[in-house]
Amino acid sequence: MFLALMTMISLGDPIASNAVLSALQINSRDKIISIKEKANADSNFIITHIIKQIIHEKNRLCLVNFHNPIEHYQSIGKKLGYDLLKAVDDGLVKIIEPIKDIVENIGCEDSYLQENKENVVKDLYFNIKDCVNALKTDGKIVYLLIDDLSHLHDLDIDIKHTLLFVHYCISLTDRDDVCFILNNHVSTHTDNVISKNLEYVADVNVKVSSLKTGKSQDVTGFLNVRRGNDLSCYHYKAFDRGIKTFRPGESIHHLYK
């Protein structure tokens, strides 16, 4: 029987001691990682745990943040044992905030609100490319992490130009030292089409979904991790200070040990 795993602040290898990272098993050979957040679920814990691993390994991160304020990532990071803003100061992390840039550049001809949507995605891509190139690798991996893609809809970007943007970002992984992580909330037909396209090219597909039967005091939702034909399935329970994961059918009493 599999023992339930509990998230904790790592004193050594976070993959070995952290339930979520142990389930994901992300490594440098995973060039493209797709995270699918189903409606009524929240995949943010996947993002914050992956950031933990990136910083622990002293790799580099270009975080394209559409979704949460940076203070959110910083607060969660502190609970998980890392300091995102310090990593920024140390030159390990660079952050792009397109929505914040929109507010600051309203009225500018080259803002993300321009009518030519192909130019919008190209401008965003070149901003990302500059960010990735500016991160000095010193033999380390540069992770491009987008959270989350569905917010391109808020900029009135259609499916054609969204897929074009994804293609541009994937092209960055032609570099041996660049990996691409994309979080995508899926609640509409358009979201699903984009997600299906990502599944075909991703080395790792992560899906976070809510319970089909509704809410439960013991289980928050499902976490599925697929590598090729290998599928690992977990239940997870979210607490104020962490996440516990366990296999479906495993005794819930393991959660309280």
From TrEMBL:
Pathway: tRNA modification; 5-methoxycarbonylmethyl-2-thiouridine-tRNA biosynthesis. One of its GO terms (cellular component) is elongator holoenzyme complex. Gene3D superfamilies: P-loop containing nucleotide triphosphate hydrolases. GO terms for biological process: tRNA wobble uridine modification. InterPro entries: ELP6, P-loop_NTPase. Belongs to the ELP6 family. This is Elongator complex protein 6. It comes from Diabrotica balteata (Banded cucumber beetle).
